[in-house]
Design brief:
Number of helices: 12
Helix content: 25-40%
CATH architecture of the largest domain: Alpha-Beta Barrel
Strand content: 15-25%
Radius of gyration: 23 Å
Oligomer: single chain
CATH class of the largest domain: Alpha Beta
Shape: globular
CATH superfamily of the largest domain: Alanine racemase
Largest sheet: 9 strands, mixed
Length: about 425
């Protein structure tokens, strides 16, 4: 469910015509719906009603300060994976005790920043990281709260590039070694064990992999408690998928996910943390673009847009599907035709869709990529010296630019020419 609907033949973002935003901001741009962000956050929060819990938004999905502040004011915590994300979360008003620090390569400086600024916990990914964190915490006269991320060797049944819970993946500690690693953690004076962390991947469309992983976590919790550890918090990661195509079987709902968590882990009496990102932000955003040219090729037609792979890299990187719709609703009965939808970057990989059925399009027409709110703007680049895409947030009948498009002069002024040139 989102708040991007046709009204009287025009696509609206909540109560704002998308074409009006395009006229003021120019294309391409991202637009997010406040109502959709809040609705999806609350679905997760309500799904865990009756259980001590915290929903920590995985801000790597979409990290604009306005988005973070919107969710923080609704009560969300944040899951961060870098020092920069930590600082963005704090700048958005998120208190340190609601920030979880994940990621496989935390540096000593990032650890120091989070400890001094306040942190709920570090999700430790390796033994060397744990030893380093202990040294940093001791140097500050502090104790670092941690969970240890275990790798349960569960197939998430998702794209290979976003699967994280198999034994060959770089994430976490093999679950078979967990008891030994927890025993070492108990010996370190700068470390306080508070729980267990697990995350098996992103864009999961079935509950079975989650349930298999959580069953292993439940068993490990009992073992670690028997070993004398005070396991009081379970960080279950995120990963619940969204329907990128309307023809696909719908992924499980947050309420079904929450019921499964209660069924598999509720008896342990632990506080539950979940870290959804894609399901909160994905359907809350569109990428809006203009048609530059319609080009007839050998046996196929191309729609050349002003958006490119540097603006939305998911199709090039993951062969990902995004529904593409015209901003002006086609009249009933209009015959559609297949187009290859491409951008202007000088790579064949700059292709959003092949032989996608769309109504007849012409130069200047606006199109919108659905489900582009997650891993869209945050993964954008300035490849081909193309400015980063502006971001817009809609709230009812209001909209605001929450990141403007930089000028070419601003982009070039970041470069420094050495004095010998």
């Amino acid at each position: 469910m989102d708040h991007f609907l046709y009204r009287n033949g025009a696509l609206y973002a909540e109560d704002v015509p998308v074409a009006d935003i395009a006229a003021e901001v120019g294309t391409p741009f991202y637009v997010y719906s406040t109502a959709t962000l809040l609705r999806h956050y609350r679905l997760f929060d309500e799904a865990l009603d009756g259980v001590d819990h915290l929903v920590c938004y995985a801000m790597k999905a979409a990290g604009n300060l306005a988005i973070l502040k919107t969710l923080a004011q609704a009560g969300a915590g944040m899951d961060v994976v870098s020092g920069g994300e930590y600082l963005r979360a704090r700048a958005a008003g998120v208190p340190g005790d609601k920030i979880v620090f994940s990621g496989v390569g935390k540096t000593a400086e990032e650890m120091r920043t989070a400890l001094q600024g306040g942190i709920r916990q570090f999700n430790v990914e390796s033994e060397p990281e744990m030893e380093q964190l202990n040294l940093v915490a001791q140097s500050l006269g502090m104790v670092a709260p941690i969970t240890i991320r275990v790798n349960p060797d569960v197939d998430a049944k998702t794209h290979a590039k976003i699967a994280t819970g198999k034994s060959e993946n770089k994430f976490g500690i093999p679950i078979a070694r967990a008891r030994a690693v927890y025993a070492r953690a108990a010996e370190l004076p700068g470390i306080e064990v508070v729980g267990i962390d697990v995350h098996i991947g992103s864009q999961l469309t079935q509950l079975e992999p989650f349930e298999l992983a959580y069953a292993k976590v439940a068993e490990l919790t009992e073992q670690l408690r028997a070993d004398g550890h005070h396991i009081r918090r379970l960080d279950l990661g995120g990963g619940l998928g969204i329907p990128y195509t309307r023809s696909n079987e719908a992924p499980p709902l947050p309420v079904e996910y929450g019921a499964m968590i209660k069924r598999t882990l509720g008896h342990l009496g632990c506080e539950i943390e979940i870290e959804p990102g894609r399901l909160i932000a994905g359907n809350a955003g569109l990428l809006v673009s203009s048609v530059i040219y319609m080009k007839s090729g050998e046996g196929r037609d191309f729609l050349i847009l002003d958006a490119a792979m540097n603006d939305l890299i998911r199709p090039a990187m993951y062969d990902a599907h995004h529904d593409i719709i015209p901003v002006i609703e086609p009249a009933p009965g209009v015959e559609q035709r297949p187009y290859d939808v491409v951008g202007p970057v000088c790579e064949t990989g700059d292709t959003f869709a092949r032989q996608r059925d769309l109504p007849p399009m012409a130069s200047g027409d606006l199109v919108a990529f659905r489900s582009a709110g997650a891993y869209g703007a945050v993964m954008a680049s300035e490849y081909n010296a193309r400015p980063l895409v502006p971001e817009v947030l809609v709230n009812g009948d209001q909209f605001a630019v929450i990141r403007r498009r930089p000028s070419f002069e601003e982009m070039m002024n970041r470069d420094t020419i050495p004095e010998w040139l």
